[in-house]
Amino acid sequence: MEAINTPAFELNYNGRNITRDIAPYALSLTYTDNLSGEADGLDIELEDTDGRWLNSWYPEKGAELSYRFGYLQQALISAGRFDIDELELSGPPSVVRIRALAAGAQKALRTRKGKDYEATTLADIAGQIAKSNNMTLVGKIEPLQIDRATQYKEGDLAFLHRIARQYGYAFKVTENSTRLVFWKSADLHQQKPVRTFSPKDLSGWSFTDKVSDVPAGVEVSHHNAKSKKLVVYGVKDGETAVVGASTSGKSSSADTVKITRRAPTAASAEAQAKAALDQRLIERTTGNINLIGDPALAAGVTIELAGFGQLSGIYTISKAVHSINRGEGYTTTLEIKRGAASSKGTKGAKTKGLAVYGMKDGKVEVVDHSAAKAKKHG
Fold first, then answer.
1. What PANTHER family has UniProt attached to this entry (predicted)?
2. Does residue 161 share a domain with residue 87?
3. 241 & 207 share domain
4. How many Å is the Cα radius of gyration of the chain?
5. pTM of the entire structure?
6. What is the number of other CB atoms lying within 10 angstroms of the CB of residue 125?
7. What DSSP string describes 143-189?
8. Per the count of CB atoms within 10 A, which of 58, 216, 227, 257 is most buried?
9. Tens digits of per-residue pLDDT, 243-280?
């Protein structure tokens, strides 16, 4: 007879273990693990038939919670630390709902501000924001040059998310706003899947597969100081190459997205073009799946779906919701996105050598022959 796993959790309030105190009143505990762009959240729903949560047990806003979850007889998974951000009390029946955020309300991360960053890099911007918010920056960021970046009355999180996404990076704030963790978005989709699922393994699923609005390519312009020409870098079918040069940066492809930003270097232009196309390809096929609780399914890891026909492939988890419910037990709900390399009709990440084009006698020709030779013999 197969053993039945029993859901388990541990909750600490300002460093004190209160698991046994609240267990009899717990209706549900839900941990939301977001990949990027939003803070992780912890939602706790408690019954309050005797009114103690309205009086002596009334939660203190801003108090710190730490939460672990999983199954008995197994090591519990840490969800990290959270600040209580919101309380909701309702009745009858009397119920208390506690909302806590990983990037707490006490921090200045969401305070809108204006600031200019000149002649810098993404790593420098991330480092400055981490330092000003007393966080440790974790992760490797390529030294891509940025001429100018302006924070337009945005919170630090919103601004950094916009700039990081532009260059193909993502991040999240963890450990109660003490760590700023960065990674390259494309790297996530190259990971080995932690689980493989077929339809019979899931209690529910749904997918959206866009058949339009997905461009064949993306172009970003870079002004070459030597040739004094505007070089247009493009990414198409997973390959990067120069697609033309002019003083206007016009493109000839109707199914190519033109990014209006200028890039200070060729590397910056290439990074932005790749990031823009990858983002659009990743958004092409998205899904939601429901299954029995599995603590190993975290935002940022990949899973493989088999037996789904054209929808089979490798998917990255963009959001994982782990809920322990008095009536339903432990369940996991995932929001997933298919990696660019798994999307139908796309090729693997293959980069061509970059040549620089210029105008000669009214015609577009290669003006950087060393780059052309590298491309030919590479």
1. FELS-2 PROPHAGE PROTEIN
2. no
3. yes
4. 25
5. 0.75
6. 21
7. --EEEEEEEEEE-HHHHHHHHHHHTTEEEEEETTTTEEEEEEHHHHT
8. 257
9. 444 333 433 334 555 555 565 666 666 666 666 666 66
Shared domain for 240 and 366, answered yes or no, is yes
43 near 52, Cβ under 8 Å? no
pLDDT digits (tens, 9 = 90+) for 345-356: 334 333 333 333
Query: What is the rounded CA–CA span in Å between residue 219 and residue 261?
Result: 10
Does any domain span residue 173? yes
Q: Do 181 and 215 share a domain, yes or no?
A: no
Q: Is residue 376 assigned to a domain?
A: no
Q: What is the DSSP letter of 25?
A: G
How far CA 362 is from CA of 73, 245, 371, in Å, comes to 75, 12, 22
Query: Has residue 349 been placed in a domain?
Result: no
SS3 187: helix
Q: Is residue 325 part of a domain?
A: no
Kindly state the tokens that stand for 86. 């919101």
Residues 198 and 181 in one domain: no
Q: Is the dihedral of CA 217, 222, 224, 228 positive or negative?
A: positive
How far apart are alpha carbons 315 and 334 in whole angstroms? 11
